[in-house]
Amino acid sequence: MKQVFLFLLLILASVGIQSQDLSNLSEKKAVEFGGGVNATTSFYDVRGMENRRQPFFWQINANVNVDLFGTSVPFSATFSNQQNDFSQPFNIVGVSPKYKWITAHLGYRSMNFSTYTLSGVRFFGAGVEADIPNMPIEVSAMHGRLNKGIDPMDIPVGVTAVDVSPASGPAYDRWGTGAKVKYNKSFGSFEFIAFRAEDRAGSIFVPDSLQDLRPAENMILGFNADINIDKKTRVHLELARSYYTQNTSLPEEAIEAFTFADNFGALFTANTSTQMNNAVVLGASRDFGKFELNAKYNRVDPGYQTMGSPFLNNDLQNITGGIGFGLLKNKINFTGDFGVQTDNIDGLKDDQMQRIILNANANIQASQKLNFSLTASNFTTNAYQTGIITNDTLQFFQITENYSLSAFYTLNADKVPQSIFLTVSQQMTEDAEDNNSQISNFNLGYTITLQSIGLTGNVSVNYFRNDINPILTNGVGPTVALSKQIFEGKGSINATYANAQTIINGDRNSNVHTGRVGFQISLFKNSTLGIDASIVDQNPYTEGAVGFTEYRGNVTYGYNF
Q: How many CB atoms lie within 10 A of CB 417?
């Protein structure tokens, strides 16, 4: 064991935080430095109400990266008039050295086998990925600690197990081992996956008061396939079977519902707390030339769990289909998807949720100067009682619809670039109890660019209408923005003014003016300076309401080396 530990230390001393290619190690410099410093000073003042932040604030962020023969060692520090902080990453160090066709993962790393086996969980240990040359085989493997145990005695006094999240404890040490073999050929690929994880019962002390804290064990077998039926047809398949024992401290017992192939001897402990569940994904797509069709079926059994993923939904069944096509030499492009999602797959719950999803997108090039973009979506959720209930029935129904239209028209693009744009969007939500809302936005504007003097400007009119029962809010106002390049493009000046007048339930509520000016410039190589100031002036019309004027200013400086 000591020899293995020393070997890992030697590897850590010669590889980088990210995946580093060691095949050209002799060409790398012995020591390289990089990093940057960013300083910010902020000023704040308000008249007419209490301050919403400190009147003066400063902060300096510094980061330094030391590269030793390809080993990246970053440090960072933050200083401000509120707090100081210094950090370095070696409490969660992770390295991924690469040599030719082999990549190793050491320390704190994450690997991805598939969605329903090992996906996204961070582990402390070792892994390897090998793309064997001149062979259609790729191999991945890992072993490490998935969770560090938290002893119940280490939880602060007054905090119970119910109050803390699973990530903060109490919890056993959890270790996992997995492997994936991928076979690639011209017609597609096949993946074979095995993953096993377990809680180590003796890693923490569990008092009698925590009877529900029991060590668990998980074994998953997975199979994935991507197959090209022909040049235009593709099929995708994912299968995963999870064996999950909730309490390994119970006596081992053969489960008659499992076949011989479902028992792994010393690899897995099966007893009365063991659950066997499946996850299935089946999809297909076909390119017909002028249009393309796709369909997908996804089912995750109730109770499906994997210790290889930090979060995973189960008890869901999705059936979706889609179409995409182009018309008039692709001047019109359309994509649409339709699907139904349901839960309560086994029918054991007292209620069931059904969700209908419809998405459509269209892009239209009416001419060389005029373009349209349209989107529409409908999310319908219906939850209803399935169990036997006396007197009352329970039903929940909600529809959320989204629509948007964008239009862009170009004027004199060859001489002075100019354009007119229009965006309209609407969102509607309603349910069975009349908790309805409708939010609409309208924006019409004009943009011009004077390239000879480096000036860009735009003027727009903005309108919004928020009807959230029982409050109706309307707002309208203009926006003007200018941007000017200076010092041969090394700097810029920008200014913005906006006004919004709001009306609530038919009565004028407020008149808000917002102004902002900014200045940015590159002082010298890798050095930038920025200054900006803004003012918000709100004048209420409602009797008894208080107006205010708010001032903000920032000075920022950055230097990279």
A: 15
Residue carrying structure tokens 């994936």: 180
Q: Which CATH class is domain 315-410?
A: alpha beta
Which one-letter DSSP state was computed for residue 268?
A: -
Q: How does DSSP assign 123-148, residue by residue?
A: EEEEEEEEE-TTSSEEEEEEEEEEE-
CA distance 477 to 459: 11
Q: Which is more confident, 249 or 23? A: 249
The answer to whether residues 388 and 413 touch, using CB atoms and an 8 Å cutoff, is no
Asked whether 21 and 116 are in contact (CB, 8 A), the reply is no
Closest among 345, 339, 293 to 319, alpha carbons compared: 339
User: Taking a C-beta distance cutoff of 8 angstroms, is the pair 145, 125 a contact?
Assistant: yes
Residue whose C-alpha is closest to residue 118's, from 316, 306, 311: 306
Asked whether the beta carbons of 42 and 79 are under 8 A apart, the reply is no
Give residue-wise pLDDT tens across range 33-88: 888 999 999 999 999 888 888 899 999 988 887 776 655 666 778 888 876 665 55
Closest CA to 41 of 22, 54, 52: 54
Given a contact cutoff of 8 angstroms between Cβ atoms, the answer to whether 511 and 487 are in contact is: no
Query: What per-residue confidence (pLDDT) applies to 46?
Result: 94
pTM over 0.90: no
What is the DSSP track for 23-50? Answer: GGGGGS-SEEEEEEEEEEEEEEEEESS-
% helix, strand, coil for the chain, step of 5: 5, 65, 30
Q: Provide the 8-state DSSP code for 262.
A: G
Distance between CA atoms of residues 195 and 268, nearest Å: 11
* Cis amide linkage into residue 470, ω under 30° from 0: yes
Q: What is the pLDDT of residues 503-529, one digit of tens each?
A: 988 888 899 999 999 999 998 888 999
CB 11 within 8 A of CB 97: yes
Give pLDDT, residue 268: 81
Element (H, E) at 12: helix 2-12
Please count the CA atoms within 13 angstroms of the CA of 86 that sit on its side-chain side: 1
CA distance linking residue 5 with residue 342, whole number of Å: 50
Q: What is the mean pLDDT of the chain?
A: 83
Q: Are 43 and 56 in contact (CB under 8 A)?
A: yes
Range scoring the smallest mean pLDDT among 1-15, 140-154, 258-272, 438-452: 1-15
Written as six digits, the tokens of 514 are 């917002």
| Greater model confidence, 476 or 63 | 476
What was the pLDDT predicted at 257?
A: 60
**DSSP letter assigned to residue 251:** P
Backbone angles phi, psi at 546, to 5 degrees: -110, 130
Average of per-residue pLDDT across 297-302: 94
Q: How far apart are CA 123 and CA 147, in angstroms?
A: 7
Q: Is the pLDDT of residue 159 over 70?
A: no
Nearest CA-CA partner of 419 in 489, 368, 492, 464: 368
